[in-house]
Specification:
heterodimer, A: 110 residues, mainly beta, B: 115 residues, 11 strands, 0% helix, 48% strand, globular
Chain lengths: 110, 115
């Protein structure tokens, strides 16, 4: 069983549509990070959420940390082809490890 | 360059051969991580260095995997007697200091294919 469950695994939508992807766990975390990874590149950090219920916005991307700090969501408004990529959530588990979810692969068609 | 640099970008080896993957960190970054990313999966932690000290190697899948960072800068991940299941993208990430709230900066990875 994965520590972080991401859903959906794959999403294909038309340009202009809205979407939400999820990162769920039964564990409580002090913080959670979202990354985007494009083909042939390493992940790039988008945001870190720290406080339960926290909402952060990055242009058309809205990130929310659950009240109980067990889950998070990423909402994209009016998706564009440039949003295509693998969206990963990640947490520190104490010590030095970062644990990643398996990711949601998003494809936005023009 | 300003980012994390990994070489080679692609490596093809025959089963049983040894391989060495290199990571050049951002200058001055204290923390260095190695990850393995299988096709369609997220990165999986392999090992962590703070300067030259390897503080966590719990993610290394077998004793065929060995990592070093002798001068606290460049790091090498070595895989001995490669197996087909070692085929994956190997990512290196560095972080300015020890603080877990600092961002990790990833290289573009080495894609390893074992024939």
């Amino acid at each position: 069983t994965q520590l972080l469950e991401q859903s959906p695994q794959f999403l294909s939508i038309q340009e202009g549509e809205n979407l939400t992807v999820y990162c769920n766990s039964s564990s409580v975390f002090s913080s959670l990070q979202w990354y985007r990874q494009e083909p042939g590149e390493g992940p790039v950090l988008l945001v870190t959420v720290v406080t339960g219920g926290e909402v952060k916005k990055l242009k058309r991307l809205t990130f929310q940390f659950g009240d109980a700090r067990k889950d998070s969501s990423l909402h994209i408004t009016a998706a564009q082809p440039g949003d295509t990529g693998l969206y990963l959530c990640a947490v520190y588990t104490g010590g030095f490890k970062t644990i990643f979810g398996a990711g949601t692969r998003l494809f936005v068609k023009a | 360059g300003a980012g994390v640099s990994q070489s080679p970008r692609y490596k093809v080896a025959k089963r049983g051969q040894d391989v060495a993957l290199r990571c050049d960190p951002i200058s001055g970054h204290v923390s260095l991580f190695w990850y393995q990313q299988a096709l369609g999966q997220g990165p999986e932690f392999l090992t962590y260095f703070q300067n030259e000290a390897q503080l966590d190697k719990s993610g290394l899948p077998s004793d065929r995997f060995f990592a070093e960072r002798p001068e606290g800068s460049v790091s090498t991940l070595k895989i001995q007697r490669t197996q087909q299941e070692d085929s994956a993208v190997y990512l290196c990430a560095t972080r300015r200091d020890r603080g877990s709230n600092q961002p990790q900066h990833f290289g573009d990875g080495t894609r390893l294919s074992i024939l």
